[in-house]
Amino acid sequence: MEDDAGSSAARADGVLTGAVEPPTSIQVHGVRRPGSAVSAGRALLRAAAVLGSALLLAGLLSPGAGATPDRSPAAAPPAASDDPINYAVAVDESASLAPGDIDREKDAVSAIAVGEPSPKSRMAVFGFASADTADQSPIHEVCPVTELDVAGRERISECASELRRREPDEGSGTDFISAVRQGVARLTEAPGADVPRVLFLLTDGKLDVEDSYTYRELDAASRTDAVERNLQRALKEARDAKVQIWPLGFGSDIDRDALRALAAGGYQTGCKDIPEAEPKAAVVPRAEDVGEALETAFSAARCLYREQGDSGRPPTDLKVRVSPLAAVGTIVVSKGDPEVTATYYDPNGKKVSRSGPEFEFSGRDRAVESLRITRPVAGEWRVHLDAPEGHRDRLARISVLWRGEIRSSISLEKPSPRPGERTDVRVQLLTRDSVKLEERDLRGISVAGKLTGDGFGQLAIGLADDGDGADKRANDGEFSGTVTVPKKATGALMFSSTVEAVGLSPDNRPYPTRIAPPTVTFDALLGVPSATVHPGGRVHGYVAVSNRDSTERTVRLALADAQGTGLTISPAQVTVRPGTSRNVDFTLDVGSTAELGVPVTERGLVLGGKVVVAENDAVLDDASLDITVTPRPSDAEVFWDKWWPVLIIGTALFAVLLALLLSRRRLRRWQIAPGGLVLELRDAANRTLGEHKAKAGRGSWYEFELVDAATDSPRIQRRPGGAYAVRRSPDGGAVLRSRGQADRTLRHGDSMTIADGLTLHIAEGSGRRPARPGRSAVSARRAGTGRPERGSGKGSGRSGTTSGAPDSVTSSYPSGPPGGTYHEDL
């Protein structure tokens, strides 16, 4: 690598010194790991090793046991309080309302309250009708100006329940004029003159003050004139106070023109100057549709994107999709009945059970509830609704209101075009996770481009994602177009793009450069590979520079569209002598966890933006970045990655050794097991008094006792902890152990005196293994004398074994039978 003396790291503060600082471009993707096949193989090897180690070493060799990977603190939620808004909702209470209409209006009011993303927003709710007598009021205020934090949303839902349908003798007209003035009064008393002000007006009819006390003394013509003047005066007050008016009519007796006039008469500037957000009137045929229509108006007035989900009666599952562009979203469930319960599941099937840094519930015991989500998982969310019998008749619906943040990156086919030369301009949309943008995500997004420069005026650049012309593929999130640099361009050029849509914060991107000289004598080419690193890691790239000029030239390396990513680049400049070319390596240093600004989660953090090489203000080349930052591994994971082959081989060798030892031990125990040995008790005349067949004993010994030795019926009886024990000898025969004496090895046919006039003979019976070659001495004597088997002839009636004697009893000698230590001879 060639380093220029004096070069220093250049921070990601813009394309070049003095350039307009582009907004941060950060993508948080899902699991995106290069070399997934290798990772999967290593995971299988790791699992196998851990399992084997756990079985063989009780987990002592398990890598990373009890360790957790380093994680950054939880992501701070976007600052919703930076853009609060003040609302007033005027609800028609006139006597013309049908039964149940007022309930739909209450639910609609609650839906606005729980759907508001900013806890600093304020809301007032009042009913209106008319004042037909001197002691009546056209306004019924139920909710004063209330801040919409968690408690405030609950208060709005509670006080909105006080809205009611008026009786005919309580003032049953429809006084829009009083409603507008009351809304303006409440909205202007809320602090913050620069906070947007919105009045929603819900009505089932048209302006009707015929019986109003204010106009009752006037004739029809005079009343019409007075009403029109007062209405225009009220609308002017709204415009002067910058109050938008969004009327919503429902039913069959709606004056659509009057509602349009109300919307047009208020303040007209909507959010971010987006045309779709200009105040407008809406009309729906039924009160059941009020909630959905009001949410649509609310989302447009609030610069939120709204997507309608399923509807159904409980018990049922309702689904709604959350776009990958959403930074903050609110799922609104209009249950229709407070007894209905809702359970939320994210697209991965994980249940959302409690509030926390990422989730906030509102209105769970009311007819309308919501779940506010910071950085929601993109995809289809499911809400399961259940209800007790008698509360399942109301139709429930689900929707999501979200506000998004989008970033973009602008690039040119020819970074430094000549005057009169055409170049393609591309603007790539960058999302915060790996979910691919669908066509419906792009709906409503507009991307506009323009070109300005020395020697000419502004040129518009048409950018589209339709697959035609310069655009390679439709609906892929890349907007492209072509522009011709004017022939009269003399120096600096500024390409720029703006991405905007309802529900998205506009994103502006500059691309400063200069016209290329007529003959190219100096150029540069960048190479930046994709990489996966940890916080504080480093990525390497290169720049190839060719100088065919007669003077020394210097280029600068910088980062664009990457502010806030924590990236730095070094060296910051490269100097090339005349008539030479250089390939210079450069490094991109990834910031620490704190410098990245966004937490690095298990899903990984993708740093967007690009590297730019420029001379003065002329961009020679640029290369997009594709750097994935993953959590720094724990010490246990680092140890595993370094030593896993040794651990695998060591574990395998240990398993083989242990298997050999166990096999040898089993073979040894099989060789000395006492099962099948026959113990014969004989008298002084060498007559067999009884036979006793040994069985599997404690360890490798069979323990027994001589019973009734002083009587005429002595016998052998199995007894754990008895005075005698016997096992086979690996060399043939058996080993006899008796209390107080040394072990003695007996060949088959040998005898041992164990009491006065009694001897013990050991022979091979029909046990687990065959007898050694040749017959035992006992069998030989039986064959030679022809003496009958036990239980027949003189002296019979005695049995070699005792009926009912226990075959398996816990030994009373924990260290083995008397006469020796009970360890196996291995």
Structure description:
- This protein has 826 residues and is of the alpha+beta class.
- 19% of the residues lie in helices and 33% in strands.
- It contains 11 helices and 44 strands.
- The strands form 9 sheets. Strands 9, 11, 14, 15, 17, 20, 21, 23 and 24 form a 9-stranded mixed sheet that branches. It has a 6-stranded mixed sheet with strand order 5-4-3-6-7-8, sandwiched between helices. A 5-stranded antiparallel sheet has the order 1-29-31-27-25, with no helix packed on it.
- Strand 14 (359-362) and strand 15 (368-374) form a beta hairpin.
- The protein starts with 9 loop residues before the first strand and ends in a 41-residue tail after the last helix.
Radius of gyration: 46 Å
Major β-sheet profile? 9 strands, mixed
* Number of alpha- plus pi-helical segments: 11
Distance between the termini: 66 Å
